[in-house]
Amino acid sequence: MIDQKILESLDQEPDFRPAPMVPVGPDDIPVVIEDVPGQGSASELPDHALLPERYKELYVRVDLGGNNQHWGKPKLVERMIDTAYNWWAGGNKPTCLITDLSRKRFRETTGHKTHKTGEDGDFDLAKTLPRDGNFTKAKRAKCVKFMKCCLEAGFSRVLFTDHDAVDTVNAWAELNGIPGRASYAEKHDNHFHVDL
Ligand SMILES: [Zn+2]
After folding, report:
1. d(Cα 8, Cα 172) in Å, to the nearest integer?
2. CATH class entry, domain 4-195
3. How far is the CA of 97 from the centre of ligand 1 (A)?
């Protein structure tokens, strides 16, 4: 449902046209979509400070290099929010961190080999991933749960550096007719990478 306040502001100011807002994820989080010439639509993942009060701690948006790499194709942003929602609504901790997607002009994204088409995003769970040390069974179970949330949100792939966790997620996906898959990848022991 589109935010009532936005509809009202449109009514009151017929000459004012904000960037179009569409409902995504839990279906009542308004996301700005802009048309970038020569590229097409780009959505911005809302900063967590802008989330409605009822979604407190749904996620934390982290700016890694001050580059505002929080943009992506609308479908990417929708699935990032859906993933965070699946995790949060299940009562899981810690709050997920959403780090880099892309710059508004996707191909200008820096610091990633991929992430240049608006179809890639990264998540982190503080003190829970292999690189954080003391990677216990309980922490691996959290990582498995989180990757399930990614695939339930519709991502086709999630990359992670742990064979056991990846195998567990894929057995579950196969059994439940979920089309996405986890994939083992080096250098993904401190974040999860997803792509459309
Ligand atoms: Zn990535």
Report:
1. 45
2. alpha beta
3. 13
**How far is C-alpha 63 from the geometric centre of its chain's CA atoms?**
14
Q: How far away, in angstroms, is 115 Cα from ligand 1 center? A: 6
| CB contact set of 174 (below 8 Å; sequence gap of 6+) | none
Instruction: Check whether the bond before 52 is cis (ω within 30° of 0).
Output: no
The alpha carbon of 88 and the centre of ligand 1 are apart by a number of angstroms equal to 21
Q: What is the pLDDT of residues 70-127, one digit of tens each?
A: 999 999 999 999 999 999 999 999 999 999 999 999 999 999 989 999 999 999 999 9
| Domain-wise residue ranges, the chain | 4-195
Ligand 1 center–CA 24 separation, angstroms = 22
Cβ partners under 8 Å of residue 172, min gap 6 = 144, 148, 178
Distance in Å, CA 70 to ligand 1 centroid:
12
What pLDDT score does 158 carry?
98
Candidates 54, 59, 32; CA nearest to 121 is 59
User: In angstroms, what is the span from residue 112 Cα to ligand 1's centroid?
Assistant: 7
How many Å lie between the centroid of ligand 1 and the Cα of residue 99? 9
Contact 73, 154 (CB under 8 A): no
